[in-house]
Amino acid sequence: MRGERSSGAVGPDRSEGHGERILGALLDRAHELPPQLIAPLVTDVVRGFGGRDPALLLQDYGQLVLAPLPGWGLSAGEPVRIDGSPAGEAFLRGVPVEVPQADGVRLYLPLLDGGDEVGVLALTLEAVDDDDRRLLRRFAALVADLLITKSGYTDRIFQARRLEPMSVAAEIQWSLLPPLSMTVPQVAVAGILEPAYQVAGDSFDYALNDDVLHVATIDAMGHGLDAATMATVAIGAYRHARRADIGLAEIYAFMDRAVAEQFGPDHFVTAQMMRLDTATGHLQWVNAGHPQPLLIRGHVVVERLESATTLPVGFGGEQPVISERVLRHGDRVLCFTDGLVEEREAGGEQFGEEQLIAWVNRVEHSQVNVRAMVRALSHTLKEKRGGRTSDDATLFLIEWR
């Protein structure tokens, strides 16, 4: 797969090897590729590698299964459960998984894009060596970028991921969200919303600007389209203020005015805004009516991050108190909305923060990366609440690395 220079040649070797030609052809064609030709292109490249039976498996909105993307040359079939499957293992761990079969090796390659994971590329080869693994890893990265880029021009990728009817409010909320996770050497984040197909007022946002991670979680009052509209204004105001490089107190004030002017004095949004210096671990936050975040250290909740609480956004609160804490390497901070702990159990009692903490401690020991942790915790908590999520429930996890 390495290029060879001709005898007596001088200067840098710019010849193409077999693998580079295949990946180069993908890059050359990707720029103006219509979305419907993603499947044939992936199929052609897999055949060029000597592979067969390719499949593009995409995470559904509920984060329960990997749904096949339909298209010419791609293997179809039923969605694959994430838990307990080789494809799910590749997805959750973010590493390739190889399964020997009678007619070769079935490979499952995570489709990673900036630490977020689109899904899994599956294919079969007769045999696999290190050159194959290196080439396929790069190919999977290109396919992930291709899917992310082209998803802005087509509905087909969204439709493949949507396995249940989705409300208009949820449609709005999903269009607002950043990637559900991000992993870089200094910091990792991951979030999840419930109920995935009916969420209305909950949302989150983040941005990594140089060494500073900005995070916001919000919960707009009410349900349905009213809540989704209010959440849209709140997130839009947060992004606008954040991009003006102003402080947390000024961000709060700007969001407060935007919600009050648009919806009047009887509407509000609870919110939590944070800034983490990823070089030093210095965390600052303003709590506008949210439950206190949990500090996780050594896979155990060690305390609630108590802080002075200001009024929710839209109520015209005074200058908020900015709370501060210096994190240790490996610390995790879990933010959540009240729908997670205020759900009533079968006996009529609230689920409560004590149960949440107990389950965080259990799940923390079974999951390594933040994306798998948030997903496992959300699904476990929903199961322990009897499968009920009558109000929106959001989890957002930050790890200072």
TrEMBL record:
SUPFAM superfamilies: GAF domain-like (SSF55781), PP2C-like (SSF81606). It comes from the Bacteria. This is PP2C family protein-serine/threonine phosphatase. GO terms for molecular function: protein serine/threonine phosphatase activity. The keyword Hydrolase applies. Residues 184-400 form the PPM-type phosphatase domain. Its EC number is 3.1.3.16. Coiled coil: none annotated. The lineage of its organism: Bacteria, Bacillati, Actinomycetota, Actinomycetes, Kitasatosporales. Keywords: Hydrolase. The keyword Cytoplasm does not apply. PANTHER family: STAGE II SPORULATION PROTEIN E, STAGE II SPORULATION PROTEIN E-RELATED. Pfam families: GAF, SpoIIE.
